[in-house]
Amino acid sequence: MLEYLKYPNSKKRLAVAGITVLMALYIIVNVLMIDLRLFVALTAVAAIFMVGMRILRGLARPVTPPPEPGLLRKVKLHYQCTICGAEVRMTVAPKEDPDPPRHCQEDMKLLTPIF
């Protein structure tokens, strides 16, 4: 037979033991949930921090130096594709009389005269 039927105070002891066990489980579950939430929060903070640092490192890289003045020349040339009609404006070239760009597998026609 069950022990609480033999002794008159055993019901109180069983009730107290049951409540104690339920309170202990409640505390353990809440502590574990707080730890789980804390772990998830810290992981999210670390991931956001790492992504932010990578972005800042990418922005902090020095800009490549400009080419020497003699390598590129300023030009103002307009070209047009003879097949589809697309137009291109060339502003910088390695020489004053550059080769025409290609479009639709053909050389483009120069619209502005070279001076």
Secondary structure blueprint with pairings:
Elements: H1 3-6, H2 10-60, E1 73-80, E2 87-93, E3 102-103, E4 106-107, E5 109-110
Termini distance?
115 Å
How is the biggest beta sheet arranged? 3 strands, antiparallel
Order of helices and strands: HHEEEEE
Shape: rod-shaped
Please report the total strand number as a whole number.
5
- Which spans of ≥5 residues are poorly predicted at pLDDT below 50? none
What number of domains? 2
Total of helices = 2
Percentage of residues in DSSP E strands: 15-25%
The structural class is: alpha+beta
For the largest beta sheet, what order do the strands appear in spatially? 2-1-5
* Average predicted local confidence, pLDDT: 78
Helical content class? 40-55%
Q: C-alpha Rg, in Å? A: 40 Å
3D structure, described in words:
The protein is of the alpha+beta class and about 120 residues long. The chain folds into two domains: about 5-60; about 75-110, no CATH class. It is about 50% helix and about 20% strand. The strands form two sheets. A three-stranded antiparallel β-sheet has the order 2-1-5, with no helix packed on it. The longest helix has about 50 residues, at about 10-60. It starts with a helix and ends in a 5-residue tail after the last strand.
